[in-house]
Amino acid sequence: MCGIFGYVGDRDPLTVCLSGLMQLEYRGYDSTGIAGLSKGSIAFCKRAGKLSFLKEKLILPHLDLAIAHTRWATHGKVNDENAHPHLDESGSVALIHNGIIENYAELREELLSQGTHFASETDSEIVANLIAKSYRGNLVEAMHQALAHLRGIFAFVAIHKDHPGEMVAAARECPLSIGYNEKKTESMISSDPNTFLGDKFHILFLRGDEIAKVTRGKVEVFDAKLFPIHKKTETLEIDVDPPSKGKFEHFMLKEIFEQPFTVQKALLGRKEDSSLLFDELKLDTNYLRRIKNGWILGCGTSSHAGLLGSMLMEELARFPTTVEIASEARYRTPLIDVDTLIIPISQSGETADTVAAMREAKTYGCKALALCNVKNSTLTREADAVLFLKAGPEVSVCSTKAFTSQLTLLHLLTLHLAQIRQTMSPEKLEAYFQELQKVPSLIQQVLDRAPEIEKLAQKYAQYDNFFFMGRRYMYPTCLEAALKLKEISYVNANGYPAGELKHGPIALLHSRFPVIAFCTNEKTREKIGSNLAEVKARGAPVLAISSHSDISSVVDDTFLIPPTLDELAPFPATIFGQLFAYYIAKKRGCDIDQPRNLAKSVTVE
Fold first, then answer.
1. Who is most buried in 54, 225, 527, 533, counting CB within 10 A?
2. Topology annotation, domain 446-605
3. Per-residue pLDDT reduced to its tens digit, 196-215
4. Is 542 left (phi over 0), alpha (psi -120 to 50) or beta?
5. CATH assignment, 243-437
6. What residue spans in the chain does CATH classification 3.60.20.10 cover?
7. What SS3 state is found at 597?
8. What is the pLDDT of residue 603?
C-alpha cells in the first residue's frame, strides 16, 4: 500500500516530492521519508508518523534529484528506523519499496552470514543491500541481479551516489508509473499516475520485472532479460484541483454529504425513452444475452456492494451471480469459463487482490467488466470494459460515496441485463427506474436529520461491542455499517444475518452489547420482528432502523428512514450507518479521515 514518488528535472526535487507525498499519503501514513543526491553523496530524512511530522524536522541540502515514500507497515513496527528510504550498509544506495518480499527471512539470514549489518527490521533494506553487493558500475544491471533473488510482488526505485541524475525503477505485478514531460526537461516516478501534475506527461507503466532507467526527460526500459524495449506511452487527463474539506470538519463528513449529487451523477444520462444507455460498456448485446453467469470480485466495502449486486442480478435479471472475496478467489478452482462475466469492483482500481483475481479469472477466457472510481488505474487498464463511478476523489480512508455509487451502477447494470434478457416487462422496468431516480432525494432526507443521528451516536458511543443484524438486502447493508464503525471508531462491530444470531452469536449478548437492527425489508418484516424480540429478551439494548413506527414498542431506540422498494432500501439505511459511525468516532476522539493501521488503497496482498 505504500506510496512511491521520484523526481528529476529543472524544478526543486524536494518541493516536487513533498507535493507528491501529499497526494500519495492515502496509501499509508505510518511513516514518510525523502532521499536525494547532493554533491556525490546521499542525503536523507525520514520519520515515523504522518507527512506533517516529517516536515517538522526536514532539513536537507539542495538535491540534484529525490525519491520519496509514505509507508504502510508490513515488515517491522512503526518507527524512524523502519521508515523509507532505506540505505545499504555502505550508504551508496537508497531505495524505496512498495509490496512484500516473501523470501526476505532467508535472504536476511544469508546476508547476515556474509557479515551484513542491518539498521531496520524491514524486507526493503535487504533489497538495497542486494543491489549494492551486485553493483559493478551499472545500476540497472545491479537491480536486475537483485530481482533474480526475490519472490513476491513489489515495485522499487533506487538511486546510487555515483549516478547523479539517474533513478532506476523496477516492478513485478505492482503498480508503478513513469512519466516525462513534452519539453523533456523533467521525469517523475509514482505509484499513482494521477500525481503527475504540471506539464502534460507521457506516461508508461512497468510490470513483469521490467526495469527503467529514468533521467531528466528520458526513460529507457528493459525487459526481464535486460533487453531494451519500447513501451507505448499515454497522455492522461489528470484532475489538477486539490481536494478540499470546504465547510466540513472532516473529508468523511463532506463525502457523506456529497452522496445525493454523486448518486445523481451516476444516474445521469443512463436512460433514453425506454432504453438504458451504456455506451462505454464495450460488451455488445449479443454477448450479454449469451453469457450464463457472473462472478463479482471485491474486498471490504466493494465486496459488500458486490453482495448486494449479486442479489439484484439474480432477483431482477435472473442472472446467476456469485460474489467472492478477491483475496480468496485467487486460490479457488472456480467453475467459470468464457460464458462467465467477471465484475471486479474497486474504488481505487489498485487493490492488489482484486487486480490479481481478475487476472487469474481472465486466464479462463472470461471478460472483465470493472467498476472503478479512478481513471488510469491498473484495474481500468486491464479490464475489457469499465463503468466509472464518477464520484470524484474520495480522500477519507473510510469509503462512503464510492459505495453508494457502486451500488447505483450495479442497479443500472442489473436493469440493463434484465432488459436484454427480457426478465422484466418494459412497464416494470420503467417503474423501477423511476423509483431509482428518487434515491438522491431519499439520501438527502436522511442527511437532513444528521443531528438526530448524532444524538443517537452520543448515546451509543459508550459501548465497545456491537452487533449489526439484517435480513435479505439489509444483511449486506449491516455488514457495511459494521465495517464503517470498526474502521474509524476502533470498536468491535460485526454484521450478521438476523436469523443466524441464535446459531451461536446470541450467547454474547448482554446489557453492554447493543444490537443495531436494519429492519427496512417488507418481505422479511415479520421475521426481523421475531429476531428483535429474541435479542431484547437477552437484555441487549436495541436500536432499529426502520420505515415503520410500530416497531418502536419492542426496541430501545428507533430511527425512521423514508420507505422505498426493498431493493433500494440499502441507500437510505447506509447513510444512517455512515453518519452513526462518524459521530461515534467523533465522540470517542478518533482520527476519522486517517484511522490507525489503515490505508485508502490496499496495494499489497
1. 54
2. Rossmann fold (3.40.50)
3. 877 788 999 998 899 999 99
4. beta
5. 3.40.50.10490
6. 3-235
7. coil
8. 56
Please report the sign of the dihedral spanned by the C-alpha atoms of residue 70, residue 174, residue 120, residue 131: negative
So what's the pLDDT on residue 451? 96
Residues 328-337 have a mean pLDDT of 87
Residue 104's Cβ-side half-sphere holds a number of Cα atoms within 13 Å equal to: 21
Quote the Cα angle for 65-68-74, to 5°: 150
Written as nine digits, the cell of 132 is 549494492
Cα–Cα dist 560/572, whole Å? 10
Are the CB atoms for 410 and 272 separated by under 8 Å? no
**Residue in 510, 514, 507, 506 with CA at minimum distance from that of residue 485:** 514
2 as an active site residue: the answer is: yes
3-state SS assignment for residue 521: coil
Sign for the pseudo-dihedral over CA of 497, 581, 395, 603: negative
The catalytic position among 2, 17, 398, 478 is 2
* Averaged pLDDT score across all residues of the chain: 90
Is the pLDDT at 278 greater than 80? The verdict is no
The C-alpha cell of 161 is what?
551516489
Distance CA 368, CA 335 (A): 16
Q: Give the pLDDT of residue 139.
A: 96
- Count Cβ atoms within 10 A of the Cβ of residue 160 and give its class: 0-12 exposed, 13-18 middle, 19 or more buried: buried
Q: How far apart are CA 418 and CA 238, in angstroms?
A: 35
Task: Give the residue range(s) of CATH 3.40.50.10490 domains in the chain.
Answer: 243-437, 446-605
Does residue 600 carry a catalytic annotation? Answer: yes
Q: Considering 213, 254, 271, 600, which one is annotated as catalytic? A: 600
pLDDT at 195 over 90: no
When pLDDT is cut at 50, 70 and 90, the band that residue 552 belongs to is: low
Task: Give the fold, CATH level 3, of 3-235.
Answer: Glutamine Phosphoribosylpyrophosphate, subunit 1, domain 1 (3.60.20)
Does the CA dihedral 505-494-371-344 come out positive or negative?
negative
